[in-house]
């Protein structure tokens, strides 16, 4: 399949990119192109102008300080997210999830900003970013704004990032001491598949009990689901197998999966119960129980 014709613009600053977006008709942003080019070829979308972000060096940086936490540029590739020492050490759940996205070839091109803006309910980095309470920075010719990542998803493939806006940064505070994590991506085969169900669990432990928890489900609703009732249930408790099982049941109750060719809604709901229990137990046991 041949790509349709388009004009490629390659600005070197965010400001320049914003001006092009403001002044062009039928324009789209391209980052790694792993999603966009496939959709252009399939004619699912069309564009007369593509604005590549590849030459904006500022958008490729990762910076971390103990005080302010991390800032990740949207053009940082999924491969870098999975292998960056600073992300692996401080936000291991994000690097684990990134390492499960696609294949090495895809991870080398795909970007974290593209994964967010594609807004698939199965996007691998989104659950961990919501669990880590990431904030995204968004720029346009009108100015800059920030939003908790949890609030930008409107439905499958839809975000509040407008056509003339660029996602320009992702920031996260440092996680609490003794936070254990788990990311489970359930697939029918073991590679090159989007999640049938994903569960992200973060559990902060103090004196052997759960001080706070964040549980996020992927691929079982139009957007990611943060399980607040499950999080509240876990808080203040020692996480035994029975508690993790009950928490898994709560997670199963709030998901809204669909039936399609890959699995029935009932099967997906049952998976959520089992995988949430497993993720919570894994997150808890990844932190020493003496802490
Ligand atoms: C074979 C294959 C396997 C895949 N497997 C997985 C998988 O296992 N898990 C998974 O989550 N995804 C998977 N994907 C989907 C895709 O690779 C990811 O979503 C990827 O992270 C998209 O990033 P990108 O840089 O390539 O985005 P692009 O294709 O460049 O862009 C995607 C969309 O986001 C917009 N966009 C990109 N960057 C910005 C920005 N900074 N600001 C505003 N809008 C922006 C674009 O306009 C476009 O609409 C797969 C894709 C393929 C082809």
- The run of helices and strands is EHEHEEEHHHHHHEEEEEEEEEHHH
How many E-type strands? 14
Q: What quaternary form is this?
A: single chain
Head-to-tail CA distance between termini:
56 Å
Description of the structure:
The protein is of the alpha+beta class and 291 residues long. The protein contains eleven helices and 14 strands. It has helices spanning 14-23, 36-41, 78-83, 85-90, 92-98, 104-109, 112-118, 126-131, 228-234, 241-254, 265-285; strands spanning 7-9, 27-30, 49-52, 62-65, 69-72, 135-140, 143-148, 153-155, 158-159, 166-172, 179-186, 197-206, 209-218, 225-226. A five-stranded antiparallel beta sheet has the order 4-5-10-6-7. It has a four-stranded antiparallel beta sheet with strand order 11-12-13-14. Strands 1-3-2 form a three-stranded parallel beta sheet, with helices on one face. A hairpin with a 2-residue loop joins strand 8 and strand 9. The protein is globular, with a radius of gyration of 19 Å. It starts with 6 loop residues before the first strand and ends in a 6-residue tail after the last helix. Bound molecules: flavin-adenine dinucleotide (FAD). Flavin-adenine dinucleotide binds at residues 28-36, 38, 53, 74, 78, 101-102, 106, 109-111, 113-115, 117-118, 120, 123-124, 161, 166-167, 192, 194.
Summarize the topology.
Elements: E1 7-9, H1 14-23, E2 27-30, H2 36-41, E3 49-52, E4 62-65, E5 69-72, H3 78-83, H4 85-90, H5 92-98, H6 104-109, H7 112-118, H8 126-131, E6 135-140, E7 143-148, E8 153-155, E9 158-159, E10 166-172, E11 179-186, E12 197-206, E13 209-218, E14 225-226, H9 228-234, H10 241-254, H11 265-285
Parallel strand pairs: 1-3, 2-3
Antiparallel strand pairs: 4-5, 5-10, 6-7, 6-10, 8-9, 11-12, 12-13, 13-14
Bound molecules: flavin-adenine dinucleotide (FAD).
Residues 28-36, 38, 53, 74, 78, 101-102, 106, 109-111, 113-115, 117-118, 120, 123-124, 161, 166-167, 192, 194 line the site of flavin-adenine dinucleotide.
């Amino acid at each position: 399949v041949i790509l349709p014709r388009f004009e490629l613009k390659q600005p070197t600053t965010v400001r320049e990119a914003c001006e092009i977006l403001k002044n062009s008709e039928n324009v789209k942003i391209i980052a790694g192109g792993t999603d966009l080019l496939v959709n252009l070829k399939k004619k699912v979308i069309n564009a007369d102008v593509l604005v590549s972000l590849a030459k904006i060096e500022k958008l490729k940086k990762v910076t971390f300080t103990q005080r302010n936490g991390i800032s990740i540029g949207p053009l940082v590739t999924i491969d870098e997210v999975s292998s960056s020492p600073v992300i692996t050490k401080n936000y291991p759940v994000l690097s684990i999830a990134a390492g499960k996205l696609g294949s090495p070839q895809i991870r080398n091109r795909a970007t974290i900003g593209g994964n967010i803006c594609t807004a698939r309910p199965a996007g691998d980095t989104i659950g961990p970013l919501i669990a880590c309470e990431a904030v995204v920075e968004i720029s346009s010719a009108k100015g800059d704004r920030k939003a908790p990542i949890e609030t930008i998803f409107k439905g499958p493939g839809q975000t509040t990032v407008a056509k003339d806006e660029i996602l320009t940064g992702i920031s996260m505070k440092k996680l609490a001491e003794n936070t254990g994590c788990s990311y489970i991506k359930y697939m029918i085969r073991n590679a090159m598949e989007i999640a049938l169900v994903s569960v992200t669990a973060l559990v902060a432990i103090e004196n052997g009990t759960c001080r706070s928890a964040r549980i996020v489900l992927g691929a079982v609703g139009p957007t990611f689901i943060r399980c607040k009732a499950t999080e509240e249930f876990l808080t203040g408790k020692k996480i035994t197998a029975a508690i993790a099982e009950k928490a898994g049941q709560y997670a199963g109750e709030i998901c809204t999966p669909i039936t399609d060719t890959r699995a029935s809604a009932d099967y997906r709901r049952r998976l959520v119960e089992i995988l949430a229990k497993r993720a919570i137990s894994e997150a808890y046991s990844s932190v020493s129980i003496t802490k």
